[in-house]
## 1
Amino acid sequence: MAAPRDVTSLKQLVLGRKDVQDLSDNEAELPPDLMTVNMGPSHPAMHGTVRIVLTVDGERIVKGDVQPGYLHRCFEKESEYATYTQVFPYTDRLNYVSPMINNVGWAMAVEKLMGLTQLPKRIEYIRTIVSEMSRITDHLTCVGASAMELGAFTAFLYFLKAREWLYELLEKVSGARLTHSYVRVGGVAKDLPENFNADLTYWSRACSTTTRFSATAWPASAR
Amino acid sequence: MSQKVLDALKQHHASAIELTESAHGDEIAWVKRDQLVQVATWLKNDPAMLFDAPVFCTCIDRLDWRPVGVPPSQAWNESKPRFEVCYQLRSQKHRHRVRLKVAVPEQDARCPSLAGIWPAFDWQERETFDMYGIRFDGHPDLRRIYLYEEFVGYPLRKDYPKEKRQPLVRRDDLPINPIKAEK
């Protein structure tokens, strides 16, 4: 990129272009120089921290150098110094809207290495049920947040309400609302609570009704 | 499960395959380093293989590692290379999987890059380089992905201490600036 020679061209470089009425006839073309813009690591349009070094040609992005790593939590290095059971709380936090699935994934990996292939049927059912609940909370978050990005903030709130019911149910199961640490190598921490079957039936119906109703809160263009 | 992949590998690339093993339901093929790209290209393009999904690439640091169950009296091959670079591959068409492993010695921590064959390995190899210091020959843009350029060492190597800190900003609560101390 050519170095700016004076204040005017510096302005032009920073702003990308002059106002149309200020352009003289021989300047009718937009400046052809590429510009480098830093986006992030913390930017209002981003939900996490990631830095993107953008090379822009006017409004058009011609190159983006994505630089992740600002949220790296050294999961692997920390786990090197933990026992197999102590790793479960870390896996909760890998994706904190579906911690049960990460719990189960870790438990299955350890069991595979141990050669533990036969688990009681009840364990498999409990793990599947809580994983499915976790999957639904994850989808509710993902779809709800996507709707919010499209401008349907009300739908997002309905989705989070539905998610909260499942969180409460998972809290009854594990004792923690968000980071459950419920699964263990070879099983789960404790049995399902009383009336779990009735609660799950009731609240999953409520979730289904709420999310269907919330569709009316989406803008017509996104429906 | 995917034994037929290992059999085909041994049949077509007998000179490139050092060893094949199956453990815990996974099929593993040890590939000679200088023939990795050739084997990988074949795995991707051969109609019976069609490995179109690069799952992950990582490295195993075997520093001071002993296999479980081998008594100390029994000789363990100390000359085994320190690093194992792993490529996990999957075919969505044939629904089979295979893991390629390359032995990489510590003194010459290099491995051919597969980013040219499966572009998804680009960032994975950058992470492996960042964390283990394996240099991938032929990689289009090999630089640290998570850590900053000034970082010294490779944090996921087993001899990198967990407590070590390398802040870019001066921290009065730390005794010395570790970056300056290293240089």
## 2
Amino acid sequence: MSKQRAVFVLLILATLLSPLAGWANEKITVEVSGLSCPFCAFGLEKKLKQLPGAEKVTIKINEGKAEIDVAEGKKIAKDQVEQAVKEAGFTPGSVRIQEEKGGAP
Amino acid sequence: MGDPVLAQGPPINTETALLVGFTNAFRTFNQEVDRSGDLPGGMRGDLHVHAVPMIFPYAITQGKLVIAGVIPYLDKKLDLHGPAGTTRLEENGFGDLRLLAEYAYYIKDEKEKTTRAIAIGGIDLPTGSHGDPSLPPGLWNGSGATSYLVGTAFSYIPPRWGFYTDLIYRITTEGSGFEFGDTLRYDLAFGYRLWPAVYETFPSPQVNVYLELNGLWEQRSRDFRPSANGNKVSDSGGNTIFFSPGIQYVPTGRAFLMETSVQIPVVENLNGNQLKTDYQFNAGLRWLIF
């Protein structure tokens, strides 16, 4: 009985503590050359938001960069980002993909 | 990093070679043109034109290939003052439909600036009313003939300011017994983002100012109606250059802007007796639809 009880307690603990193991969200930063007017940024924002998994897009005009927050569990490939920038009419530079660890709320 | 990067809108009276932004959009403006002067036969004329062009650009490929349709609504009033008194002639309605295509053949995007050049081609279709013998051809809504456009535009846009230039030649043909002269449009514009000093994160409201020189050379017209026998119209054609200061306000920083400019003739060499431009005034908006 004590062995069964120990297994039962371990199962309960595993269930309660598993959210603390956390999950990973991606944040993608892409350099954009030629971004020279606010309406241009509007077109770029639309294209990047259309990427499957893109949750939020921030365009930092004074840094020549766009940042994409990717939804949990989703991934966006580097070539997808580059293609979206080209389709918006600009030239993509480097693409950096960062994984940001989350935790239990 | 952190240098104030580019960000101003397109110039008001000059073409931009940057084919992104206000494509898939709608543009319109209210243009008032006032002209006055001596006319042949000892008459004096005052012309007032109220034009509302509607422009619909569409991007086939963003930044690379754009097509557009342009159609104006026109309201023209000409007062002719003579010894016997004043006669008013007027006409209103839609003008000729213009179809345009613009292709970017040079694109150099760098950090904090872009340099671009486009080729422009187009056709004006004679959809506006024309040929009314009771009106001088200049008062017709349309030309009565098909015209062809060919041109180019160049833009250099580094941080906070921009340089724009264009050259567009229009080849006219005869319609309703009259051939308006070919035209050459040549423009130069300088744009500057007045506010904010540093454009950080999109979207942000902004104010841009423009100084433009807008030139129009026009060949003499030819009149093929029975009374004129294909002769050139001596009191037609010439060269005019406007100095055009303007201001542009982007309220939300996103898909809508308002703009206005006044055009003052600084050079006006017209052939014979023609009405001279007192001023031209434009006020309008651009709206990104989708």
